[in-house]
Amino acid sequence: MSALIERRPGQRHGIPVETTDAAHLAASRRRLDATQRRWLGDSGFDAAPGTFALVPDAAGKLVRVLVGVASADPLAALAGLPCHLPEGNYELADEGVLTDTALATLGWALGAYQFTRYRAAKRAPARLIVAADELARLAPLVEATTRVRDLVNTPTQDMGPEQLGEAIKTLARAHKAKLRDWVGDELLKANFPTIHAVGRASHRAPRLVELSWGKADHPRLVIVGKGVCFDTGGLNLKGGEGMRWMKKDMGGAAHAIALAGLIMQAQLPVRLTLLVPAVENAVAGNAMRPGEVIATRAGHTVEVDNTDAEGRLILCDALAYAGEQQPALIIDFATLTGAARVALGPDLPALFANDEALADAVLQAGNAVADPLWRLPLWRPYRRMLDSHLADFANASASRHAGAITAALYLERFVPDGTPWLHLDTYAWNDADRPGRPRGGEAMGLRAVFAFLQNRYGR
């Protein structure tokens, strides 16, 4: 949170940052003296979105910053400034054109992110002074986003199933939550056969980690996150290009962990269960093979059509276990399908829901906090694409059609009838640097779901 600092009594004011656009640039210029106006004109500043101008006084000291913004994207308005403005303290000028300064301030903080585990930060970010109440509201969101980014960015050598479990244990200690896990062959004894089948070929034991928190009389909420810490594709081996970034295949778990942290920090009145099946999908002599049939926790038999459709296999046991707790709501996050990226691109997570009102509420919450989702249908006639002549159904389809939908339909079979369920197929990654969205791991859909839960549970 070093990019946002609390305004304290007697604190020196920061350098004013005024947001403007082409329609208001003339008014912004009138607030400058003649020398500064000449300086602004000579610099060629035209208030295009993403540009800024440093305005000095007569002695050459920086006294004001003008920033070109687009009102349609307040989250990005200031996000490029923390690592480009001179180091120092700044504050938003009252004359700015942005009406949603809270999102702009959040964007500033997100734009200051640097992953520093393996190299030093390139520079210290410029700092934005904010009111105490605004800092208290934004700090958890920034912390949660940073947690997702850090977990996803960490290479698999330092983020295997055990380390992912340690991240959950750290969270449990911080919030006095209960924790249990099943590791290796304990999964078979506890009837989590598909999690074991996917992870058994790795030298790192597969596991299921469960965090429990909240009062028994509150509505039960279960959050599930796909924790494939590296995905080779198994015996259906990925090509080199497809395997390159598969450290991020635990991005669903990262989202689930971060959301659990937000819920506990906000003291939402829920009885929370976090479930993270954590595995590596590796290649070895004991790896699951295409054509094998696995008996799942729910009692369904599943034919392994493709070992690279492993995420839904570990999730199905976790979802079945979630359903046994008779929750009021199940939410799962997963970097599940490339098909969702083909359909919606890298920025829009796909939302699936078995409840119309829930889906609408999540979509509205996402739009309100500039964390949009796009709903795809649970088109049940496509269940035929998962038909098997050996088992109850297969884990993947021979067809390339509707891959995100068939994956969601597979998961839906493990959610008890009548249990409200939300499934987010998220990319969890930025392919290139953009303001507020640095290349690498990214939280996508996290703020949307948290805002929905805040609305739903009244705090």
Which consecutive residue ranges, at least 5 long each, have pLDDT under 50?
Answer: none
Distance between the termini: 23 Å
Number of helices: 15
- How many strands, what sense, and barrel or not for the largest sheet? 9 strands, mixed
Helix content: 25-40%
Q: What is the total domain count? A: 2
Under the CATH scheme, which architecture of the largest domain would be assigned? Answer: 3-Layer(aba) Sandwich
State the CATH superfamily name of the largest domain. Zn peptidases
CATH topology-level fold name of the largest domain? Aminopeptidase
Strand elements, count: 20
Q: Which strand-content bin applies to the residues?
A: 15-25%
Overall geometry:
elongated
Quote the average pLDDT: 96
- Radius of gyration equals 24 Å
Q: From the helix content, strand content and strand pairing, which structural class follows?
A: alpha/beta
Q: Class of the largest domain in CATH?
A: Alpha Beta
Family: Belongs to the peptidase M17 family.
GO molecular function, one term: manganese ion binding
Domain Cytosol aminopeptidase: 306-313
InterPro entries: Leucine_aapep/pepB (IPR011356), Macro_dom-like (IPR043472), Peptidase_M17_C (IPR000819), Peptidase_M17_N_1 (IPR048816)
